[in-house]
Design goal:
There is one protein chain. The protein is of the alpha/beta class. It has a single domain, classed as STAS domain (Transcription Regulator spoIIAA). 41% of the residues lie in helices and 31% in strands. The protein is built from 5 helices and 5 strands; from the N terminus they run E-E-H-E-H-E-H-H-E-H. The radius of gyration is 13 Å and the shape is globular.
């Protein structure tokens, strides 16, 4: 898993993840999410780009839910970029698509 985050559009945190994400990656995911929120303004906006993710297990999904909780506690907003299968299907099966706003492209998530 390679990942990074950047700050764009005056403060929006964009976290980009790639590859297969599983229990082995959970500590790195938590660290990346914490770093992305560090120094964030009140009511942070975070875009989680999963364009290049090919697999998510339940532990990785739990990390995403943890990020959602942390952003929500700060009255912020989490948007997820899900361009297509297989990640869209995982979000549908778990019901995450009903609680997280998803977008087909990074540009669409940033513009919303």
């Amino acid at each position: 898993m390679t990942d990074h985050f950047e700050i764009v559009n005056g403060g929006t945190r964009v976290v980009t993840l790639r590859g297969e994400l599983d229990a082995h990656d959970a500590p790195t995911l938590r660290t990346t999410f914490s770093e992305a929120l560090e120094g964030a303004p009140p009511q942070p906006r975070v875009v989680l780009d999963l364009t290049q993710v090919t697999f998510l297990d339940s532990t990785a999904l739990g990390c995403i839910v943890g990020l959602l909780r942390r952003v929500g506690e700060a009255d912020g907003e989490l948007r997820v970029v899900l361009p297509g299968a297989p990640t869209v299907r995982i979000f549908e099966i778990t019901g995450l698509d009903a609680i997280l706003p998803t977008y087909p492209t990074r540009a669409a998530a940033l513009e919303a």
